Amino acid sequence: MNFKKVGLIVPIYNASRFLRECLEAILNQSYQNLEVVLVDDGSTDKESVEIAKEYVQRDLRFVLFIKENGGQGSARNVGIEYCLGNYVLDYLGKNENLFKYKINGENLYNVDRVYRGDSIDLSSKVDYLMFVDSDDFLEIQCVEECVKNIGDSPALWFDFKRFYDGVEGKEEPSDMEVYDYDKSQKITAKEWLQRSKEAGKRNFAICWGAMIDCAYLQKINLRFLHCYGEDNHFGIMLFLQANSIVVLPKKLYHYRIRTNSTINYGGKTSIEAIPERLRNILEDFLGNPMMLQKYYRAGGAAEMLEHIFGFVEKNCDDEIYRLLEATFFNRLCMLAMNLKSFCVDPLGYQRFLPKIEKYAQKQNIGAYMLVHSSLEYQLGSAIIAGFKSVRNFVRMPYVVFKIFREYKKNAGIGERDLSGYWDCKEALRLKRHLSYRIGRKVVGFLGFC
Q: Alpha carbon of 186 to those of 91, 252, 301: distances in Å?
């Protein structure tokens, strides 16, 4: 099978601390017929790009795209477009012992330049795609095991190990262990959904845990959305349209859990952890990173649900729809409905709500949104954020005043009887948060309810 070329797509953003470990594991793969696509997503540290260029100079299988910050999804999409042969590149000359190119024609992801150690062979065909995050790394035999086992299936799903870097954490089962897959097998999309229901799965994020046939990806025209949690949409749509999926329960990927990663920015981390492209809307959330994160998360769920609804309505039977209801739809709906908690919508996500609200009413979803939109929760969150920096502390009276003005009418709505809602447990869990408890005491002291 060594004649099959595998494209490894590595999105990079301020990853200099981990990048060498990631790229060395790729460089030393037992399977050597690779096309390694590095995509720098507007890193603000100089070291990430310099390290990437070093590997492009060392190994002719590497190519580097440099683009403006757009998120991991857009960086992965650049790699997909390149591996599928959808880019026309113009040669600009040689610079720093590297051949330099630019994209000719449509440049959806704002790629500034492309570097390679020799001239780019645009006829080079990539058979399979894999994704590797720049702070993670592969087992040396990862690609070889996947190529050996994928057969004629459009996708192969393999397992991973977590490791904690500078943060506390306990070992948790991987998705594959939750599904209780303990031997290699081939399954259908319907079998995957049925197993998801039995396992109680409510999300399915996959990108780096899979090998994907490029012809299949081209056929279904699947790309990452430009939103929070886009790998959930990608994973669901990838498996939903596959006639078969190979399950390979081998831990071939090392997944790093660290502070200030893309999925962890929020109230417990610094403002520096917020992606560059979102910092200009932080003031819309009164300087509170946690509230910005919750809004971005809710908007991502709404956008994903809108796209999946559109596909399912045209292409899936009632049985598949019911399985999706029992697995992923309700959770995405719960998160999306939280958009109603915010008085601002700088990214325009509320345009997705009309269809989602109808679904929420049918499924009786909305308890989480009620608690989150309460004066108590909003006020408590603002008070906690006020003690995270001197700047926030100075601004706290102004922030508290604005919250009282915007959310005064919502005092006490989190104390309603929530027992009849599908998301009652999530709402009760939110009420136990320190934010709600602090806000409840303040509101009670002031005699609002």
A: 44, 18, 30
